[in-house]
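Deliverable D2.4 — example input (structure tokens):
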């Protein structure tokens, strides 16, 4: 594994600002408690067509018997007929230091699949990073490590999601919020956060004030990439989009209503063998239903791909409540979609 000193190719060290480091040090356990919830958004095109979903979950966790915060996020969908997605699982200390993070990105093309995995692990005073890129049957692996002293104020894909929740709940972005991060080639780069102000967003036909944050990633090789996110007053993510991209992630259902929507239905046991007429009808219908189902699956081959993607996410997360996980996973595919978005001056 190669070890580097955190300097860029042109010899200039990139460091987080004092304000950014101070912000991370100021995070209190009580603030983390208010961030323990799940966000579920739908990915929609510019024509308001559903393309997939986006889910972020923050929870307290014990890693190697030590308490930490686990942030997990999944984005899945289809663009131009190609299935694609991203999975992120990060384990963070109370000041958002990255203890470990696993990221996977994939896109399923017609001829082959492109898959990229990146693993970060804090160990022995260093951050060890390993990437594995698979293109069809070709596999490329790269490893590198940085001293933690060069990564003060590090923000990754996983920790940035929790960091923005905390900023949104404080409803104020300090000046000069400049952190360090990594680009696609594992070089240390700069990422900054700035305030966008408040605007009105429509959710389920109602207008709500949303606090805006902008995250900019400054890469020498990839150029500037910017994401704009808006949060409700309680920290729930209401919208997320990359500037210049044709996809927007939007909140379709208010979190409180989603939580209250679950109904408890008493189950009544049904014994077919004790009702001969019903049992006969069941046998008669069984073969017809099987034939109809098989025909439907042949006419809609994308169903198998969707189920395979769901099972992949299920086995990766291994949730305790499978039913709730399935509901959250498929919620963004709901047919309704917001049609208006108003901005205030």
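Example output (designed residues):
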């Amino acid at each position: 594994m190669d070890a580097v000193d955190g300097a860029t190719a042109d010899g200039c060290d990139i460091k987080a600002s004092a304000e950014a480091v101070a912000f991370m040090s100021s995070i209190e356990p009580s603030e983390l408690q208010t961030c323990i919830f799940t966000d579920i958004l739908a990915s929609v095109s510019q024509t308001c067509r559903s393309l997939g979903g986006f889910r972020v979950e923050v929870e307290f966790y014990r890693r190697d018997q030590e308490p930490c915060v686990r942030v997990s996020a999944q984005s899945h969908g289809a663009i131009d007929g190609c299935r694609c997605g991203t999975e992120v699982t990060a384990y963070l200390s109370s000041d958002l230091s990255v203890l470990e993070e696993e990221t996977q990105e994939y896109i399923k093309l017609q001829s082959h699949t492109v898959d990229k995995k990146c693993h970060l692990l804090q160990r022995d005073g260093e951050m060890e990073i390993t990437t594995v890129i698979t293109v069809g049957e070709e596999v490329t692996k790269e490893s590198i490590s940085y001293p933690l002293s060069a990564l003060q104020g590090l923000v990754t894909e996983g920790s940035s999601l929790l960091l923005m929740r905390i900023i949104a709940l404080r409803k104020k972005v300090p000046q000069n919020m400049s952190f360090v991060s990594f680009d696609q080639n594992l070089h240390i780069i700069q990422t900054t956060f700035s305030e966008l102000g408040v605007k009105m967003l429509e959710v389920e036909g109602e207008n709500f004030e949303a606090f805006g944050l902008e995250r900019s990633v400054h890469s020498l090789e990839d150029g500037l990439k910017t994401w704009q996110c808006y949060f409700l007053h309680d920290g729930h993510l209401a919208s997320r989009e990359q500037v210049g991209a044709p996809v927007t992630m939007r909140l379709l259902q208010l979190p409180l209503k989603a939580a209250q929507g679950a109904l408890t239905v008493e189950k009544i046991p049904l014994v077919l063998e004790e009702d001969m007429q019903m049992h006969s009808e069941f046998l008669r219908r069984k073969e017809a239903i099987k034939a109809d189902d098989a025909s439907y699956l042949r006419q809609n081959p994308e169903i198998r791909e969707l189920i395979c993607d769901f099972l992949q996410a299920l086995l990766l997360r291994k949730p305790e409540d499978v039913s709730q996980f399935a509901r959250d996973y498929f919620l963004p595919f709901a047919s309704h979609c917001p049609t208006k978005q108003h901005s205030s001056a």
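The radius of gyration is 23 Å.
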